[in-house]
Structure prediction request, 421 residues.
Amino acid sequence: MEPSQAPVRHAPFRPEERVAIRKQLERMLANSLFKNSKRYPNLLRYVVEHTLEGDPSELKERRLGVQVFGREPDYDTNADPIVRATAGEIRKRIAQYYHEQGHEAEIRIELLPGSYVPEFEILAPAPAQVPLTPFPASSATPLAPPSGLRRWIRYAGLAAGVILLTGIVWLKPWTPHTALDRFWSPVVDSSGTVLLCVGQRQFLGTSAEPGQWSNWDLPHAVDPHAGAPGSITLFKLYYLGSENVALQDVTTLGRLNGLLQAKGKTCVIRGQLSTSFADLRDGPIVLVGALNNDWTVRLMGPMRFNFERDNDTFWIKDRQNPSRRDRAVNYQTPYLELAEDYALISRVLDPTTERMVVVAGGLTGYGTMTAGEFLTNPSYINAIAKQMPANWEHKNVQLVLATKVIGGNSGPPRMVDKYVW
Prediction:
């Protein structure tokens, strides 16, 4: 019998259903999305088994922390959110697993947001078709409905089909089709709000902002409007780093925010000076800017491609070829004489935050704008997709871009290096 397309949720479970679900669980845990981790399989197996055995009431955060991760019974779940963080990552990896080809007809194991009790979807078999038995020769031929009634039945069937098709189109969830969609699918499929963290420069001011360091690249400015010691007037506030964002970064921020919202994601925008490490663990992250975004420099530091500085020269460092410094910009160059800029795009599952992180940052603002253009224009990623290895959309990706700069305007992006793992 062919499976129908209507998923059926089962509770309680029949013995054969428990066997099928356990086989599906092991199939998923053998996938590369799970098999290289200990935490994700342990938690997913625990909640699935307890649900199958009819004991889902015990699947609470504190109990899971104790039973699965060995925490003390009175541990602080707010200070140690290991269960929430692990469950969020499991949800993302489940979504990635079912996006891969070949898993469409498999039993679905879902861990919905806000719950640690999994749900299962099993394709119900279609009812067997009963063969039509022809009337015996001696039987009277059944009367056909009048022509007007036949026409009405035909039109009604056509209308029902149109309504059904329309419903399928509108209710069908977003699925990636273009290379650009596939690039962003790990972010779009991740649970939680997307944090757009934009870099902030330190500006000329009389002193560093509270809690910040002085920028020794800039001369010390005299402030004729200084108020009482320690106070920050509105005039001084204008020049402080946390109140300023570069125009190129704003342009890139707007592009990325518009794209993600068009794909149904909720976004929150913050400056890097007001972004904490705890903020980075709440959901997927998009970092805009490089040298003016401390989180970009920190999170990209261990990666193959990252940002490096030597006095006035900044470059994209290649850890596999550390002596290479040709992808560089000297900041003493008059800005109208800058001929080329470089940018780094990264989309990685960051081991520090355990979240999907996307970086769009250039050595200067021109490179950042080029990265934003690349990440929002389908033609650019479509053009390089054929150069990418198989299944690249489910792997970590770093792309090094270059752009010509003429008279203070950047040209189209071109990929000069890549790393996929």
The mean pLDDT is 79. The chain has two domains: 3-126, 183-200+245-420. The two ends are 41 Å apart (CA to CA).
